[in-house]
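FAQ: What does the model actually see?

It sees only this:
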Amino acid sequence: MRTVLRTAVTGLVTAAAVLTCGSAGATPAGPGVTARILTQTTVGGTDYTLREITVPPGQSTGWHYHDGPLYGVVKQGTLSHFDAGCASDGVYRTGTSIQEPPGADYVHIGRNLGDTPLVLEVLYVLPHGAPFSEDAANPGCPFQ
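And it is asked to produce this:
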């Protein structure tokens, strides 16, 4: 099942990248983190946006949550992912996929604990007009 999900997400992200229709700059939470929109479209009341996110060594995305599900692939580096209980809920290396559920009940942070830039391709599936992420307070973890 995990292989099927990884294959589906990788195929979806790759297909969306092929359909790239321009780029725009954006910066998610976290110092030094950059992002660019690869492609986006709206169908019905849902925005589908593919972004490339780069997290420098030693940096993070900041604590946040999303209003819709996310599907991503690690293109370079290693993503260390933590939940609001301060526990690691996954370490994702180059070529692996990640899925994040929506909602304020899923506050999390992505960190680059490695020595090379972390590059992610992320497909956001959000209600029309919703922001890419909603900032959240550090839930009491000894790291940011």
